[in-house]
Amino acid sequence: MKKVILTGDRPTGKLHLGHFVGSLKNRVELQNSGEYDMFIMIADQQALTDNARNPAKVRENVLEVALDYLAVGLDPTKTTLFIQSQIPALYELTIHYQNLVNLGRLQRNPTIKTEIRERGFENSVPVGFLTYPIAQAADITAFNANLVPVGEDQLPILEQDREIVRTFNSLYGDVLTEPEAMLATDEKSRRLPGINGIDEKMSKSLNNGIYLSDDTATVREKVMQMYTDPDHVHIDDPGRVEGNVVFYYLDVFAPNDPRVAEMKEHYQRGGLGDVTVKKYLIDVLEGILSPIREKRAYYETRPDEVREILRAGSEKANVVANETLKKVRDAVGINYFDKEK
Ligand code: ATP
Ligand code: MG
Predict the structure, then answer these.
(1) What span, in angstroms and rounded, lies between the C-alpha atoms of 14 and 12?
(2) pLDDT tens digits for 233-276?
(3) Contacts with 37 (C-beta within 8 Å, 6 or more apart), sequence order
(4) Which of 52, 87, 233, 306 is deepest in the core (most CB within 10 A)?
């Protein structure tokens, strides 16, 4: 039996470079290895937990995320691409798992705490948002996923999902598969910072990203705005490489490039301007983004084809999720009217 992978993205915006290095690149490699059964979910229901008052944003971005998937090389003949809200079993699984988690445990989750702060939810957090780790346990277990490729920010959520699985299995028997997180091998890729500074994760909701669909002029403009070293005022001043977003990106997107090593040394010594380094980064990013852009443009003119890919994928996903739901109902003992118990 092949190992199963499940992962996904919230349709709160187009996908960015953080997604690319943190997860998408990995997914394409795993897909093409042929060694896994991969399910990739557009998590619209999760996106609604903090966007309930703006459902149009979520709806519009479902197609955008799908376009990004196809653009980076996810292939619907090899990978099941589906929409979370179209899988009713996930709602019911969530209800079952809710009984296994304490409120305090949810409130202590460090990622949830950060996200509550970032969204200004300190005084009134939607219940659905606070409990999204539970819904995520439903997503993962519905497909019996062994592996979940994610960025570093998702580790505390996945830890909570694993706890839910263990609690369920200890109460009701060995029914659910315990998943493992799968991080990018390159450490710096696990949490790509936004363009404004090293401490902030690149995030759709924070408006600090470079998107896979950004055109050349936009990429150039965003790189030119990037945070570098605030004390590097004159070209001759020695500059800092640590904490400098431009060098961080060069480490991630041009690893082992001897020109980058040279530039770092020159920058630290003094005499190398930010603009030169930024121009180099623009070229590096263009090399990565232009084939993605091209492929995206192809699918942008074929929205019906993309919708059909998601419909067919959701149909397939439903079959698997319903099987798991049946096992869960049997295990809990609420299968009163089933003939073959
Ligand atoms: P939102 O702001 O709506 O939460 P997001 O930009 O955080 O959006 P998600 O859809 O929440 O994106 O995340 C999808 C996947 O991409 C997750 O596995 C997440 O860990 C990963 N990811 C998101 N941002 C980054 C990043 N900056 N670096 C590496 N991985 C990331
Ligand atoms: Mg996020």
Answers:
(1) 7
(2) 999 999 999 999 999 999 999 999 999 999 999 999 999 999 99
(3) 2, 3, 4, 5
(4) 87
Candidate of 153, 183, 253 to mutate for ligand 1, largest count of ligand atoms within 8 Å of Cβ: 153
User: How many whole angstroms from 237 Cα to the centroid of ligand 1?
Assistant: 36
Look at residues 192, 237, 232 and name the one whose alpha carbon lies nearest to residue 212: 192
Name the pTM for this structure: 0.95
Answer whether 27 contacts ligand 1 (Cβ < 6 A). Answer: no
Q: Give the count of beta carbons closer than 10 Å to the beta carbon of residue 259.
A: 11
CB neighbours (10 Å) of residue 218? 12
Indicate the burial class of 285 (C-beta count within 10 angstroms; 0-12, 13-18, 19 or more): buried
Residue to mutate (ligand 1; options 203, 205, 245, 249; most atoms within 8 A of CB): 203
Beta-ladder partners of 39: 6, 80
Nearest-5° angle of CA 44, CA 50, CA 51? Answer: 65
**Is 41 in contact with 4 (CB distance < 8 Å)?**
no
Closest ligand relative to 10 C-alpha: 1
pLDDT digits (tens, 9 = 90+) for 290-314: 999 999 999 999 999 999 999 999 9
